[in-house]
Amino acid sequence: MSQKKRIVIIGATSAIATHCARQWLEGSEVDMTLVGRDLEKLERLAQDLRVRSQSSQISVRLGDFETPAGIQLTVDKISSDERLDIALIAHGSLSDQERCQNDLTLCQSELMLNGVSPVLYAEAFASKMLANNHGTVAVIGSVAGDRGRRSNYVYGAAKGLVTRYMQGLQHRLVGSEVRAVLIKPGPTDTPMTLVLKEKGAKLAPVEEVAAAIVSSVAKGSDLIYAPQKWRVIMMIIRHLPKFIFNKMNI
Q1: What is the pLDDT of residues 52-101, one digit of tens each?
Q2: How far, in Å, CA of 31 to CA of 122, rounded?
Q3: 250, part of any domain
Q4: DSSP assignment of 166-210, as one string?
Q5: What's the CATH code of the domain at 80?
Q6: Does the reported pTM lie above 0.90?
Q7: Domain residue limits at 76
Q8: Cβ distance 183 to 92 under 8 Å?
Q9: Which of 30, 152, 220, 227 qualifies as a FRET site for 245, CA 20 to 30 Å off?
Q10: Is residue 229 a part of any domain in this protein?
Q11: Do the Cβ atoms of 62 and 36 come closer than 8 Å?
């Protein structure tokens, strides 16, 4: 059995996940599995990581992001009987709110990809880790899940599901050596948020968000906002009286 830290990244080609992978390789040897839907992109990322850490073991695997059976099979093939140290679940898309309002099929797909699918992956990995009483499941949620807003409530509803699920999973894991970490990034400078950037939105550097994730996973934190200022911002938004909130175009 490998003595290197065993890390699995679901949605590995996302910008935040890619930077997390790079930071995990700094100064240490790891056994890392990259999971995604595009084999060519996965292979390019794997090659980049192999150059950065030639003594690490980097492998790729196509994953299912839609069906419970497919998600379970993906996790089974990755983990088998080998002990996992970290599973980072980082896949998703920034839903087009207006299109989702007018296309229920798209709405369902976005809710599945951003909410149900990450939860199913987390549940599958948590069960594997509990069998060994070891490991950390880290899930990237979003500040959008803290309060439903007209601009992104389909995406926010999916991330709200992730938040409630992770709270329950953390409660379930009390007394074990398995940790569940929920990360809530604010708007981050990635290809997924290009539309926001073009509209002049101030976005957090992806390297800083990745550093916060890597640090929170190492600490086993229950919840982290990235950057931390979003903890205060979202606390204010959550507690705004309805008559004030309804006047805001957010």
Answers
A1: 999 999 999 999 999 999 999 999 999 876 789 999 999 999 999 999 99
A2: 20
A3: no
A4: HHHHHHHTTTSSEEEEEEEE-SBSSGGGHHHHHTT---B-HHHHH
A5: 3.40.50.720
A6: yes
A7: 5-245
A8: no
A9: 227
A10: yes
A11: yes
